[in-house]
Write a structure and sequence with these properties.
By secondary structure, the chain is mainly alpha-helical. It contains 13 helices and four strands. α11 packs across α12. It is globular, with a radius of gyration of 19 Å. The two termini are about 20 Å apart.
């Protein structure tokens, strides 16, 4: 019976949790199933769902990136300042923001690979640096009133579908393709499965690690663009909980901190779980502090289930 349960959980655990959460709120909250609310859920998850795509690459490779929230804050302020104060054209500001995102990610990967220090520690340091820098530069004041053409990325629609949701879908498809259909994706899995074996197989560990973190920075910059456009403001505290929400979504989707397994599709399922849960709790009138408690409990649950599975596999 035990083996059947764990086999089922490995294959369908994320889908089961998604179905349970969806059914619970569908039954208890009448407004939940309205088309407007369901579309609102997708809009709410679009921003950090895009970021989760990059974080998934990092976690599958056996790493971690706690700095994505700081990247969202700093890069968002930079793009907003370029458009509002320096009157930089929107396409140029977007391009520069993406390049900065890639650079920030590559710096994380380069430091972690060169110093052979666990990425968790490195990105914790860069998270503190970026969060502090955002507060120092702005004194806590927001930047708002972005150009109307830029706001389209977060507030516009193509037909009845929000542009932010379309961007989320395109990003997830791109992440799935890179991870599942390319040689680079196989290198990511190999790096997370056994770094020494990957090195002996001829994989350049430093190069791949830098590319993975650069890719995470790139996807994070896209999420930042959508966030700026949707809120029409940039603040030093934007994205403050993104790192934990992203890790929770990835873990619920079956990606472990040890790396070597997981999929982009399951990560998207984890994003939907977090999004539906947040939306349903708001409909129930649960305050934001209690929501953080529940999200923390979910992350602990996902980590515990993974640890138990590993112990069973190792026979300990």
């Amino acid at each position: 019976m035990g083996e059947k349960f764990w086999s089922f959980y490995r294959k369908f655990g994320a889908y089961t949790i998604l179905a349970a959460v969806f059914l619970f709120f569908a039954i208890t909250q009448r407004v939940f199933l309205s088309p407007a609310n369901l579309m609102n859920v997708l809009q709410q998850v679009a921003i950090y769902g895009i970021v989760v795509t990059g974080v998934s690459f990092v976690m599958i490779s056996g790493g971690a990136d706690l700095s994505v929230g700081g990247q969202v804050a700093c890069n968002g302020l930079l793009m907003a300042a370029m458009m509002v104060y320096a009157k930089v054209p929107v396409p140029v500001a977007i391009l520069l923001g993406m390049l900065v995102g890639i650079l920030l990610g590559c710096i994380n990967g380069a430091i972690a690979a060169a110093l052979k220090v666990t990425p968790f520690v490195i990105t914790l340091c860069t998270m503190l640096i970026l969060n502090g820098l955002a507060l120092v530069v702005t004194n806590g004041y927001p930047i708002y009133d972005m150009p109307a053409s830029f706001l389209w990325f977060g507030q516009g629609r193509i037909g009845q579908i929000p542009v932010s949701v379309i961007i989320l879908i395109l990003v997830c498809i791109a992440g799935w393709f890179l991870l599942s259909k390319t040689y680079f994706g196989r290198e990511v899995y190999a790096l997370g499965g056994n770094q020494e074996a990957a090195r002996l197989a001829g994989i350049n560990i430093i190069r791949v690690r830098i590319i993975i973190y650069g890719l995470c920075g790139f996807f994070t910059s896209i999420g930042t663009i959508v966030m700026l456009a949707r809120t029409n403001s940039a603040t030093a505290t934007a994205g403050s909980n993104y790192q934990f929400d992203c890790m929770t979504a990835a873990c619920l989707g079956g990606i472990t901190f040890g790396g070597g397994n997981g999929s982009m599709i399951n990560s998207f399922i984890g994003v939907l779980i977090i999004g539906i849960l947040a939306n349903g709790l708001i409909l129930m009138g649960v305050n934001s502090n209690m929501q953080q408690v529940i999200k923390g409990a979910l992350l602990l649950f996902a980590i515990s289930m993974d640890a138990i599975q590993k112990r069973r596999t190792d026979g300990t």
